Recover the amino acids of this structure.
């Protein structure tokens, strides 16, 4: 059993949904990524996504785009992110997932990327701009290195295509809950609830369902978990906390705020008793 699969199995046994958190690696500085990850894990994160900054992040909203630009300016590279991932895994057992675009993987070489990712302790990789039709070689190399290929589904994904995505994804299915890009929203929309219910008819019993985009409060997390999702994904609000506290030169408060925020989110993943 791979690490992500075991994580969801353990969560189910405890009657909990999963909390997946995202950070832009290298923001505000590369050395900060290690201690930020520590705080999120201490707060209760079940899986941590490390975003490799890219110059054209088409799926990301302004908060993450800004963080990625600053991380690139600070000299963050895919190889450096994988090096910091290895340090995180030396200190924590929590699964790490890389979120990146296809170009950085292609430039590094697919085989080289996955061999390095495996050596660094990466459990899965998410590539928003890689369609399943073009992922054959990619998936073969990922499977060989025992790294999960995590695909995304969107509100516009037709039912037949959704079935194909579910057949090809591993670890979990990343459900984009809204139209548009990443970013905090005020509430979970009714269309998101309907989307979760529709998607569960395909994923239930096959692959865990994780819901992201627009999830930023404990109430958001509680809603998607109670509606049947196996995990909630939170990113933009975490990056915003990092940015706000960094701008005020208060690292101690930033770390405290991240741990507290994550802890509040994690408490909201407890499922109702049958």
């Amino acid at each position: 059993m791979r690490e992500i699969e075991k994580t969801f199995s353990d969560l189910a046994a405890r009657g909990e949904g999963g909390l997946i958190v995202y950070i832009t690696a290298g923001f505000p500085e590369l050395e900060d990524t290690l201690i930020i990850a520590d705080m999120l894990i201490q707060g209760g994160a079940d899986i941590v996504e490390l975003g490799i900054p890219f110059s054209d992040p088409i799926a990301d909203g302004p908060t993450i785009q800004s963080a990625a630009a600053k991380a690139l300016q600070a000299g963050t590279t895919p190889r450096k992110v994988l090096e910091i991932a290895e340090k995180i895994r030396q200190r924590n057992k929590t699964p790490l997932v890389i979120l990146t675009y296809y170009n950085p993987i292609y430039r590094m070489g697919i085989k080289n990327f996955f061999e390095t990712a495996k050596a660094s302790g990466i459990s899965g990789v998410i590539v928003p701009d890689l369609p399943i039709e073009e992922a054959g070689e990619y998936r073969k190399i990922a499977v060989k290195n025992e790294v999960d290929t995590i695909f995304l589904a969107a509100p516009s994904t037709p039912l037949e295509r959704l079935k194909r995505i579910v057949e090809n994804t591993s670890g979990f299915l990343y459900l984009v809950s809204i139209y548009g890009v990443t970013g905090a929203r005020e509430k979970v929309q009714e269309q998101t609830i309907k989307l979760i219910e529709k998607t569960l008819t395909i994923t239930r019993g096959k692959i865990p369902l994780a819901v992201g985009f627009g999830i930023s409060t404990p109430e958001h997390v509680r809603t998607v978990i109670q509606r049947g999702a196996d995990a909630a994904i939170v990113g933009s609000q975490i990056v915003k906390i990092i940015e706000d506290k960094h701008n005020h030169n208060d690292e101690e408060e930033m770390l405290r705020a991240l741990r507290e925020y994550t802890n509040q989110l994690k408490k909201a993943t407890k499922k109702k008793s049958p």
Notes: The chain has twelve helices and nine strands. The CA atoms of residues 86 and 120 lie 4 Å apart. The first strand starts at residue 18 and ends at 24.
